[in-house]
From TrEMBL:
Species lineage: Bacteria, Pseudomonadati, Pseudomonadota, Alphaproteobacteria, Parvularculales
Enzyme class: transferase
Keyword Aminoacyl-tRNA synthetase: no
This protein's name: fructokinase
Stored CDD domains: ASKHA_NBD_ROK_BsFRK-like
Xref: Pfam families: ROK
Length: 289
């Protein structure tokens, strides 16, 4: 008897992380394809998911997608699941949900990568007011308060806020094609790499981490001041650097300067699910599709 399979895609700007799970949500197998053109990436993802399901002796019954943004996340919209005006070259206007759902002939649900990761992290911790920040090719934020995801029927775009410059960094123009030196333009992986080279080669004490902490700490204080959060979780590829989250927490506490009593370094945590947060969130979306 063919067993039912849930499929999930953590659709990032660098790669699409793919996974399949049984009805209980536990990941059975996974794969990854590089993010190139929309057509090539979608074709490779569909082929990889079909192969994973076949090897597991199952049939894909539903798909969940945790996507980079901006993306239309309103199920009532005619363009639900379509990538909007994105810095990712060639992807603006891509009907991601429709193309993947039709190719696999299954129902599908989509949300932002950060919202999906936040949902997965909350399932582990049971908090009611929390935010998730992803730091990778871009910077994104998902936030939930009073049981509701922020920004509905759209989603926050806090990666593009303006921030005060780190001392000595005033002349860097930034890498965001829309805003230049917004937060994403200053502290995303491409922005850090442009200044400091490959991040995996930087030692923990390198100034790059203090600079990134300065910028992301400002974002964290804005979030904490807005919704008086119980937790701010940081994930994404750059968060795998051991120095990043401690530097963000240090800057956050220093910037708060004792004003909000709960806004201490302990409020900032690295994603408990690590790089699986987006994929596990996508699989939770599949279960609801």
């Amino acid at each position: 008897m063919t067993k039912p399979i849930l499929a999930g895609i953590d659709a990032g700007g660098t790669s699409f992380k793919l996974g399949i799970a049984g009805p209980d949500g536990s990941i059975l197998d996974r794969a990854r394809v590089p993010t190139t053109t929309p057509a090539a990436t979608i074709e490779a993802s569909v082929a990889a998911l079909r192969k994973l399901a076949e090897e597991a002796g199952g049939k894909i019954e539903a798909l969940g997608i945790a996507s980079f943004g901006p993306v239309d996340v309103d199920p009532a919209s005619q363009s639900y699941g379509t990538i909007l005006a994105t810095p990712k070259e060639g992807w603006s206007g891509t009907p991601l949900l429709t193309q993947l759902s039709q190719a696999l002939s299954v129902p599908a649900a989509l949300d932002t990568d950060v919202n999906a990761a936040l949902i997965a992290e909350l399932a582990e911790e049971g908090l009611s007011r929390a935010a998730y920040i992803t730091v990778g090719t871009g910077i994104g934020v998902g936030m939930i308060a009073a049981g509701q995801l922020a920004g509905r029927p759209s989603h926050p775009e806090l990666g593009h806020v303006r921030v005060a410059r780190f001392p000595g960094d005033e002349t860097f123009e930034g890498v965001c094609p829309f805003h230049g030196d917004c937060l994403e333009g200053l502290a995303s992986a491409p922005a850090l790499i442009k200044r400091f080279g490959p991040l995996e080669k930087l030692p923990q004490h390198h100034q790059a981490w203090r600079l990134a902490g300065h910028y992301l700490g400002q974002l964290c204080l804005t979030l904490a001041s807005t919704a008086r959060l119980q937790r701010i979780t940081i994930g994404g590829g750059v968060s795998e650097a051991p120095a990043l989250v401690p530097e963000v927490a240090r800057a956050f506490e220093a910037l708060n300067n004792g004003y909000l009593p709960e806004a201490t370094a302990n409020l900032i945590k690295k994603a408990a699910l690590g790089e699986d947060a987006g994929l596990k969130g996508a699989l939770l979306l599949a279960a609801r599709a």
